[in-house]
Amino acid sequence: MSDSRFFDLAGPFTLGELARAGGVRLLDEGQAERCFRNVAALDVAGPEDVSFLDNRKYLPGLGETRAGAVVLHPSFADRLPGGCAALVSEAPYRSFALISQAFHPKPVPRPGIAPGAVVDPSARLGADVEIGANAVIEAGVRIGERSIIGPGAVISRGVHIGADCRIHARVVLMACEIGDRTEIHPGAVIGSRGFGFAMDARGHVELPQVGRVMVGSDVEIGSNSTIDRGMGPDTVIGDGAKIDNLVQIGHNVRIGRGAVLVSQSGVAGSTRIGDFAILAAKAGISGHLTIGPGAQIGAMAGVMRDVPAGAKMGGFPAVPLKRWLRVHALLERLAERPKKEGDTP
Fold first, then answer.
1. Whole-model pTM?
2. Least confident of 39-53, 194-208, 266-280
3. How many CB atoms lie within 10 A of CB 73?
4. If residue 118 lies in a helix (H) or strand (E), which one and from where to where?
5. What ranges do the domains of the chain cover?
6. Does domain 13-103 have CATH number 3.40.1390.10?
7. Residues identified as active-site
């Protein structure tokens, strides 16, 4: 359940309206005019809430839910308790997300410049842009219509931001361009200097990093993540990429469309991550590698060589996931083996 102190709530909506919003089929059209006020998890939902089931392990709770409606796969619809409406979908989680968006739309900008904000006269702000308190907008910045710049954010000279973006509090943007509908969460730093030196016993010599970071549209970048600008070629984040909190992306890296990088993963310089590839939490990718489209890198894996498209990798150094699981199982069996005379303690 959402807390009204922090989140705006739209609605109420009829079940028919919600079915259209989620692209789902209402099994009993006679319930299309029932009104609903929110979304909630199966175990806490009430008669005016919509819930969902996407994971079979929660099936035991389905028959006990008090939710007024549940989004679920058609094969489970007959397990709903009496009075609970079935919204059937082949992709329940996606459909539930769309219904949730109806109840919790993104904030609408409050156009204007808040007290304490500093906006250079040469900056160009689109229609209905909101600039938060103490934000700094430097020379030559362009911000697209309906974008929101949060309190204390710093948009450095020359940065371009597209339309309908959400740049949250204390974000720093440097030497970058941001596409439309992209959201960057608090504390993220985009376009800072890449980590590049000519290393020498006489002292390391800084190598100027004069590329940019090119962030596509519909991208999400989590809190306190950092993306370094390129050394000469640009660092590129493809459309629809989703980057979690505390992720580090080095200079000249190219992230493909729809790629997902989970918390504390890191990508060293000049590596290529293919479209819709996934890096699980704490995965580390060495520099100058290619991770193929659709590849999946397991949590805490250390990748030190190229990964083909669609491969699943795990362990350190990373190997095909099934092999790593077999090795791990073998080590477990060895550790549990009864000691024999002559074994090393």
1. 0.90
2. 194-208
3. 14
4. strand 118-119
5. 13-103, 174-323
6. yes
7. 251
